[in-house]
Amino acid sequence: ELSLEVRGLAFAYPDGTQALFGVDASIARGERVALLGPNGAGKTTFVLHLNGILAGGSGSVKVAGLPVDPKDKKSLREIRRRVGVVFQDPDDQLFMPTVREDVAFGPANLGMRGPELEARVTAALERVGMGHVADRAPQHLSFGQRRRVAVATVLAMEPEILVLDEPSSNLDPASRRELAEILLDLDVTILMVTHDLPYAAQLCPRSMIMSGGVIAADGKTRDLLADP
Ligand code: ADP
Ligand code: ADP
């Protein structure tokens, strides 16, 4: 079963910049994949197509078999639930008075209430080891803790695929290690955009290297990183 299936995805920005030139990629359920490549390669543009934030080019994207179609507002809601994006800056993701409310926000927005919602929030916070800060204000946590809470806000949606943008950036060695252990323990499909090759090697058995708007290489991380 595929979590993600992308076929012939091409896209140009309104100013005419062609950012994607026919991207093909399949990710099976439960895989952890690093998306590597130089600045300007098209990684961000690619990722923004996975949940329909960008659209209008050619080709197709399917998440667990469901086509991403930005014109279909109802299916787009489901796609946004299935594709959980953890931004590079956790402060773009945390805006409620307490950690608990931030993690509850997504599922509550889907109509979840009461004990079911509470259980969902508790489970998500426990998966990132942040249950003990549930009632604190996000801005009083360390950066590493905020990033883990940002991951919990996304896990609370029980996504099909977890997309992380530079998850190791700005972390001290201890936080970096803790986050790696957390991500390795999750049984969710992971696509991780990163420039951190050791992190990619540690977490992702498979890597895709993007260059010039296409997937230039795709294979075992240890083979790709051994042979530059
Ligand atoms: P990466 O994430 O790998 O650094 P991007 O997807 O950000 O690559 O960029 C791919 C290409 O698209 C680059 O040439 C970049 O300059 C261009 N680009 C990105 N965003 C925009 C935009 N909003 N308008 C026009 N061109 C853009
Ligand atoms: P990242 O490091 O995540 O790949 P970038 O540095 O490529 O991000 O881009 C940062 C922001 O600038 C993004 O919102 C992107 O869409 C925008 N951007 C990048 N290149 C261009 C461009 N040529 N014209 C307009 N916006 C751009």
UniProtKB/TrEMBL annotation:
Keywords: ATP-binding, Cell membrane, Membrane, Nucleotide-binding, Translocase, Transport. This is ABC transporter ATP-binding protein. Belongs to the ABC transporter superfamily. Its main location: membrane. Pfam families: ABC_tran. It comes from the Bacteria. It is a peripheral membrane protein. Residues 4-228 form the ABC transporter domain.
